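Sequence design from tokenized structure. All designs in this work follow the same two-part layout: the structure record, then the generated sequence. An example of the structure record is given first.
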């Protein structure tokens, strides 16, 4: 991973050994003038402090008592690059609240009480690279929730209650590389859900309630490197769903589903294992949930047995057909001989009559 991405995704914040109170002094915030860092974490704030240094680049408002983000709260912080607001009680974000943050690269709103994302939520965030909204109260994603995030590379929506995603919810995220939707309530994956995510490399769908996927749902993901579908409700899969992933190499994670182990499932996994660009990283961990006699058994231990019954049935049917055909041939031959013998006898009788 390039160094600038490591720094962006995992920023190292400095030790505040020479911190001084920020204006106003009673806000409980510390400033680091040299590195342009303002630390207001754990300051029991119920509002967002104003009058901060306009050249502030790092602003930590995490672990406070904030409930809303009003319009104009960051109007003077146009140089801000990192904004941490995680672990508050934020349930309301006014439209355009972040519109002045034209240089912002990382916005962390994890572990709040956000239930909806308005159309104006992302206004002004064209430079944003990472948006963290994990462990909120989102239930659905609307078509224009992320419309201004043209340069976003990582979006985390894990640990919400998302059960519905509109078809065009991600259409503006053409540069997105990581999409984290784990531990939500999705039940199915429909075509066009990920239609504009050509740059996506990691799609994490662990811990949902997915029972089925449309055949073309992953086709647009031409850069996909990791697809995590572990801990869902899949009982079987369609080979065509995965063969339509046209990438150089994609790692599939499919453990902890409700696999119904039969001959059809064995065929699908045998085919997948023969596709060079697809790698089943956790095939050895796939376990059967049904039928009951195979419950808890690993698929790789029983896969050679799953088609035995079907093979025996095919052999019996084939043998029955062969026997029937042979019997028909034998009967036909007997009938032919009978007819031939009868004709010969009649011809003999005629010859004797003519002699008389």
């Amino acid at each position: 991973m390039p160094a600038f991405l490591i720094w962006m995704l995992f920023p190292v914040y400095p030790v505040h050994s020479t911190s001084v109170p920020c204006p106003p002094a009673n806000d409980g915030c510390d400033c680091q003038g040299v590195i342009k860092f303002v630390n207001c974490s754990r300051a029991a704030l119920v509002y967002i402090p104003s009058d901060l240094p306009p050249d502030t680049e790092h602003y930590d408002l995490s672990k406070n008592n904030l409930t809303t983000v009003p319009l104009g709260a960051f109007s003077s912080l146009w140089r801000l690059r990192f904004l941490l607001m995680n672990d508050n009680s934020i349930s309301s974000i006014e439209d355009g609240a972040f519109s002045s943050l034209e240089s912002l690269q990382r916005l962390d709103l994890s572990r709040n009480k956000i239930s909806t994302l308005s159309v104006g939520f992302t206004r002004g965030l064209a430079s944003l690279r990472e948006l963290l909204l994990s462990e909120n109260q989102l239930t659905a994603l609307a078509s224009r929730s992320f419309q201004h995030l043209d340069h976003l590379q990582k979006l985390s929506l894990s640990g919400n209650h998302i059960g519905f995603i509109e078809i065009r919810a991600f259409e503006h995220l053409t540069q997105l590389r990581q999409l984290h939707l784990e531990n939500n309530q999705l039940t199915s994956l429909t075509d066009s859900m990920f239609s504009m995510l050509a740059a996506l490399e990691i799609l994490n769908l662990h811990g949902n309630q997915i029972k089925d996927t449309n055949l073309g749902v992953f086709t647009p993901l031409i850069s996909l490197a990791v697809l995590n579908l572990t801990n869902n409700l899949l009982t079987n899969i369609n080979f065509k769903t995965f063969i339509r992933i046209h990438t150089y190499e994609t790692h599939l994670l499919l453990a902890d589903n409700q696999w119904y182990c039969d001959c059809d499932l064995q065929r699908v996994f045998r085919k997948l294992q023969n596709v060079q660009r697809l790698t089943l990283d956790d095939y050895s961990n796939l376990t059967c949930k049904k039928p009951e006699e195979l419950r808890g058994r690993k698929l790789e231990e029983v896969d050679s047995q799953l088609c035995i019954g079907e093979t025996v049935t095919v052999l019996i049917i084939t043998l029955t057909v062969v026997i029937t055909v042979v019997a028909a041939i034998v009967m036909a031959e007997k009938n032919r001989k009978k007819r031939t013998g009868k004709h010969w006898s009649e011809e003999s009788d005629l010859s004797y009559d003519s002699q008389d």
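The mean pLDDT is 85. We note this feature because it recurs in several other targets discussed in the main text.
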